Prior knowledge:
Strand content: under 5%
Shape: elongated
Oligomer: single chain
Distance between the termini: 15 Å
Helix content: over 70%
Largest sheet: none
Number of strands: 0
Number of helices: 2
Order of helices and strands: HH
Mean pLDDT: 82
Amino acid sequence: xxxxxxxxxxxxxxxxxxxxxxxxxxxxxxxxxxxxxxxxxxxxxxxxxxxxxxxxx
Length: 57
């Protein structure tokens, strides 16, 4: 039995939810003085990692 890949709209939804969750933490980090570009990079990385893990599971 091979797993079927999720359709495009499902991946977009997963990416949006993961980005929102990571964005909340990023907002707090920037408010405490972290460089906004560093925070944005961390947000993008964590959102993509969450989607990749979601595709495997």
